[in-house]
Prior knowledge:
Helix content is 37%, strand content 23%.
Amino acid sequence: MNETPKNQGQGWDSGQYLKFAGPRLRPALDLLARIDVDSPQSIYDLGCGPGNVTQLLAERWPKADITGVDGSPDMLARAAADFPDMTWVEADLNTWQPSGPIDVVFSNAALHWLDNHVALFPRLMGHLNPGGVLAVQMPGNHAQPSHMLIRDAAGPLLDKIEPHMRPDPVEVLGVYYDALEPVSSEVDIWETVYNQILEGDNAVAEWTKGSVLKPLLDVLDDDEKDAFFAAYSELVGKAYPKRPDGKTIFPFRRVFIVAKQ
Ligand SMILES: C[S@@+](CC[C@H](N)C(=O)[O-])C[C@H]1O[C@@H](n2cnc3c(N)ncnc32)[C@H](O)[C@@H]1O
């Protein structure tokens, strides 16, 4: 896989991201339901963002020590304000090391920002106690109009944003099986397409503004940002038309990986 620009999480905007907390939460709940560990002592949530998913881990395992790790000071400030009883650590996941062995490594919608998954996933398994679980969910939507139309919308700005566009970081699923099977007692991999029903105007563009568009908008000046976002909004508005009730269906594929030590 190509070397790609790293997102260390510094530019994330918790407010924009939380606009869609409902639809973004469901895959996290589906992932959580597949973790078969009775009473873990030590849990890490990698790329914890504003902490609302980390809170779900605390609700399921109230006696565990839970640490949220993220590279974004904005996200962590929000997490610490909303959930002051948990531990929040600022770190780049490319180099992060836990202080001791862990029972659950959880990561929802974050590891697609890291490269070289073939090395990353076995490395994360190496942090687990025997019987511990690695549980990961990542979006796998790169082949859909929400992503493909970015290039079409860029026009003359393509030169400026192209160096910041990540190629699809999520491998075909067999690659994860081959990487994890030698270091796991069980590996479960699946994918789900969620037909998300979004409310409001320009719903798909507003969604991607808080995720895949964010690093691209960050490199544009204000006028360029407005022009690019308007062009992109028009294109995705046609690809994902509003239904007669004013809502928008945004199909979104997600990949799930649960591996046990
Ligand atoms: C889409 S959000 C997911 C947040 C949360 N897990 C959830 O499910 O709502 C992705 C998070 O990954 C973080 N992130 C991305 N790359 C990172 C890196 N290299 N190191 C640490 N955090 C990173 C971002 O700051 C952001 O908070």
